[in-house]
Amino acid sequence: MPIHHVLMALLVAVVWGFNFVVIKIGLKEVPPFAFAFLRYAFAGLPLLIFIKRPPLSLGLLTAIGLTMGFIKFAFLFVGIDLGITSGLGSLILQSQAFFTIILSIFVLNYRLTIQHIVGISIAFIGIFLIGLEMNTEANLLGLICILCAAFSWAVSNILVKKAGPVNPFALIVWTSLIPPLPFLGISYMFEGNNHVWIEIWQKLTWVGFVCILYISWIATWLGGSLWAKLMGLYPPSTVVPYSLLIPVFAFLSGWLFLGETITLQTTLACSLIFVGLIINQWPRPNKNVPRALRTESKVPSQAAA
């Protein structure tokens, strides 16, 4: 990946990592399913008449919207409600990288190199060390729900890859139209009726409203569009390991804005994740080009001189 695409992937990890701080603050004012409904309503509806629908079938758009938005977050919220902490949930959710790579092998016929395997393995050791540091007793059913959310995210990655070179921003806007109605229905079933929504609008402060706008416009529009663009350009084994940085930036933003502590073990684990990504992304020579030609290409020609 060229440096500007690497920076793009890092920006997505920063935006989605900080998103956990925003969600933690926003959930103090809005119940989780209502929060998810508002996220996708604000992400899809405002630009519907201005953004042309991408040239994809309605079935593929619906599948991406359901897996990327509704199914993923529904399982995530249920898992957290069953006792999985938000921090541990964010870590388990990164198993989507593993699921995505496995699916890409069977569905897209991609092949992994030894370099990919070593880099991703080192990064996962970092994720595992962070999980040990949290020392949390996980509810088995809650754990299964988070894994289902991770698998749904992985499926959406494959669907985005199969969508091909479409406008990523248009893809995010139109797929954001799918989750609101299911989330609204679940909110009415589990969080209350019209009175709850009246209370939400009466108690919603400017801080809560900014949180809604952040997850709708920054996390969904910006983060989602850049992620979809990278997934369309590169093999999943190149892109998805960057998602392992999301917990790293989540911990850093929690330390900066919420006063959460970062231990030496967490610092070591984050370092391993960065090392794994560097190994995964280290440039590899093109084996299809003879060595002599690669050497000659590095020597300026007399005409150029």
Describe this structure in words.
The protein has one domain. 73% of the residues lie in helices and 0% in strands. The protein contains 15 helices and no strands.
How far the N terminus sits from the C terminus, by CA atoms, comes to 29 Å
Output mean pLDDT: 80
**Based on DSSP secondary structure assignment, what is the total number of beta strands?**
0
Strand content: under 5%
Order of H and E elements: HHHHHHHHHHHHHHH
Helix-strand category: mainly alpha
Q: From the alpha carbons, calculate the radius of gyration and give it in angstroms.
A: 21 Å
Contiguous low-pLDDT stretches (5 residues minimum) are 288-305
Q: Major beta sheet, specifics?
A: none
The number of distinct helices, counting runs of at least 4 residues, comes to: 15
The level of helicity is: over 70%
How would you describe the shape? globular
**How many structural domains?**
1
Itemize the secondary structure elements and their pairings.
Blueprint: H1 3-26, H2 32-44, H3 58-81, H4 86-93, H5 96-107, H6 114-134, H7 140-163, H8 168-175, H9 180-190, H10 194-203, H11 206-233, H12 236-239, H13 246-257, H14 264-281, H15 291-297
Helix pairs in contact: 1-11, 1-13, 2-3, 2-9, 2-11, 3-7, 3-8, 5-7, 6-14, 7-11, 8-11
In short:
The protein has 305 residues and is mainly alpha-helical. Helix content is 73%, strand content 0%.
Keywords:
305 residues; disordered C terminus; single chain; 73% helix
